[in-house]
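HUMAN:
Just now I want nothing more than another pair of eyes on a protein record. I would be glad if you read both lines and explained how they fit together. I have put the entry right below:
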Amino acid sequence: MAAPEQNKIRVATTSLAGCFGCHMSLLDIDERLFTLLEHVEFDRTPLTDIKHCGPCDVGLVEGGICNAENVHVLREFRKNCKILVAVGACAVTGGLPAQRNHLDLADCLREVYVTEISLASGMIPNDPELPLPLDKVRPLHEVVKVDYFLPGCPPSADTIWKFLTDLLAGRTPRLGPELIRYD
């Protein structure tokens, strides 16, 4: 991999427990990605297919934290990012995955894997390759320091664009009500 170009900031992304919709919004920036590439070098993102995050200026994280692997990935990601941004409702509040928080985890697993009518003799998976689920789905700020919160489900491409261009210009990102939506 080539050395990072001078004056470009390094940006990385990762996805935890969510639907990948926030990454789709990033990709929906469309041709503005070319403008962004004049100022940004992407590290770990769907655009680069890099699996591990190196030292970065900005890290964008979508999804909440539902298992031990999510905790590990998030902590490693945080260590490598000067600025960490919680992107979308799942990262900010736990989002839809947190709907299970009012249920007992053991009851939930039994319902899904054992008593579901389509599973005549199901069993709860118990493989060391599977990450251990947490009792509750957590938002990012309950595990690591988050510098910015970018709400929405998902935030629109215009919202992500405005946020990143403000950050690149050295301004504190400011999002008006027209850019914050939950539909």
The chain has one domain: 9-100+132-179. The chain has six helices and seven strands. The longest strand covers residues 9-15.
